[in-house]
Amino acid sequence: MTFPVLTGSLDLLHRVAASVRPDQLDAPTPCSQWTVAQVLLHAAGDQHAWASIVGSGSPPGYDPFAPPRRPDSDISQLITDA
After folding, report:
1. DSSP-derived 3-state class of residue 35
2. Are 17 and 9 in contact (CB under 8 A)?
3. In the prediction, which pLDDT does 30 show?
4. Helix axis angle, 36-53 to 4-18, nearest 10°
5. Domain tally for the chain?
6. Disulfide-capable partner of 37 in 5, 11, 25, 63 (CB 3.0 to 4.6 Å)?
7. What is the per-residue pLDDT across 49-76, written as a single tens digit (0 to 9) for each?
8. Does residue 40 fall inside a structural domain?
9. How would you classify residue 55: left for phi > 0, otherwise alpha for psi between -120 and 50, otherwise beta?
10. Cβ(78)–Cβ(44) under 8 Å?
11. Domain containing 45: what range?
Protein backbone atom coordinates (compact mmCIF):
# COMPACT_ATOMS: atom_id res chain seq x y z
CA MET A 1 0.00 0.00 0.00
CA THR A 2 1.29 3.46 -0.85
CA PHE A 3 0.53 6.76 0.79
CA PRO A 4 1.05 9.56 -1.76
CA VAL A 5 0.57 12.39 0.75
CA LEU A 6 3.17 10.93 3.12
CA THR A 7 5.57 10.15 0.28
CA GLY A 8 5.21 13.69 -1.08
CA SER A 9 5.73 15.20 2.38
CA LEU A 10 8.85 13.12 2.92
CA ASP A 11 10.24 14.15 -0.48
CA LEU A 12 9.71 17.84 0.31
CA LEU A 13 11.31 17.41 3.72
CA HIS A 14 14.35 15.83 2.04
CA ARG A 15 14.65 18.82 -0.28
CA VAL A 16 14.41 21.33 2.54
CA ALA A 17 16.90 19.48 4.74
CA ALA A 18 19.35 19.20 1.85
CA SER A 19 19.30 22.96 1.42
CA VAL A 20 20.22 23.67 5.06
CA ARG A 21 23.93 24.17 5.72
CA PRO A 22 25.38 22.82 9.00
CA ASP A 23 26.12 26.37 10.17
CA GLN A 24 22.38 27.17 9.90
CA LEU A 25 21.18 24.41 12.23
CA ASP A 26 21.37 26.58 15.35
CA ALA A 27 19.64 29.56 13.71
CA PRO A 28 16.36 30.83 15.17
CA THR A 29 13.03 30.18 13.48
CA PRO A 30 9.55 31.74 13.64
CA CYS A 31 8.89 29.01 16.23
CA SER A 32 10.62 31.08 18.89
CA GLN A 33 11.54 28.16 21.14
CA TRP A 34 13.05 26.02 18.35
CA THR A 35 16.15 26.19 16.18
CA VAL A 36 16.29 25.16 12.52
CA ALA A 37 17.58 21.72 13.63
CA GLN A 38 14.65 21.29 16.02
CA VAL A 39 12.08 22.20 13.36
CA LEU A 40 13.66 19.66 10.99
CA LEU A 41 13.72 17.05 13.79
CA HIS A 42 10.07 17.75 14.54
CA ALA A 43 9.15 17.20 10.89
CA ALA A 44 11.34 14.07 10.63
CA GLY A 45 9.87 12.72 13.87
CA ASP A 46 6.37 13.18 12.48
CA GLN A 47 7.38 11.20 9.37
CA HIS A 48 8.73 8.40 11.58
CA ALA A 49 5.53 8.40 13.63
CA TRP A 50 3.34 8.13 10.54
CA ALA A 51 5.55 5.40 9.09
CA SER A 52 5.21 3.41 12.30
CA ILE A 53 1.42 3.87 12.35
CA VAL A 54 1.03 2.54 8.81
CA GLY A 55 3.42 -0.32 9.55
CA SER A 56 6.36 0.65 7.38
CA GLY A 57 8.80 2.04 9.93
CA SER A 58 9.66 2.53 13.55
CA PRO A 59 8.71 5.44 15.79
CA PRO A 60 11.24 8.21 16.33
CA GLY A 61 13.77 7.77 19.10
CA TYR A 62 12.79 11.16 20.56
CA ASP A 63 9.64 13.17 21.21
CA PRO A 64 8.92 15.12 17.99
CA PHE A 65 7.08 17.72 20.07
CA ALA A 66 10.15 18.29 22.26
CA PRO A 67 13.01 17.66 19.82
CA PRO A 68 16.63 17.83 20.97
CA ARG A 69 18.66 20.90 20.02
CA ARG A 70 20.86 18.72 17.81
CA PRO A 71 20.35 15.20 16.50
CA ASP A 72 22.54 12.28 17.51
CA SER A 73 23.10 11.63 13.82
CA ASP A 74 22.78 13.41 10.48
CA ILE A 75 19.33 14.98 9.97
CA SER A 76 19.23 13.85 6.36
CA GLN A 77 19.80 10.28 7.50
CA LEU A 78 16.99 10.55 10.05
CA ILE A 79 14.67 11.65 7.26
CA THR A 80 15.84 8.86 4.97
CA ASP A 81 15.21 6.32 7.72
CA ALA A 82 11.60 7.48 7.94
Report:
1. strand
2. no
3. 96
4. 160
5. 1
6. 25
7. 887 887 777 888 889 899 988 877 777 7
8. yes
9. left
10. yes
11. 1-18+32-63
Dihedral (Cα; 66, 30, 18, 13), 10-degree rounding: 60
In a domain, 45, yes or no: yes
> What pTM value is reported for the model?
0.82
Whether 43 and 51 have beta carbons less than 8 Å apart is answered as no
Q: Is residue 57 part of a domain?
A: yes
pLDDT in tens, 1-51: 677 877 888 889 989 988 999 899 999 999 999 999 999 999 988 888 887
The backbone torsions φ and ψ at residue 35, rounded to the nearest 5 degrees and listed phi first, read -85, 175
- The pairs formed by 28-34 with CB atoms below 8 angstroms and a separation of 24 or more are 34/67
Does 79 map to a domain?
no
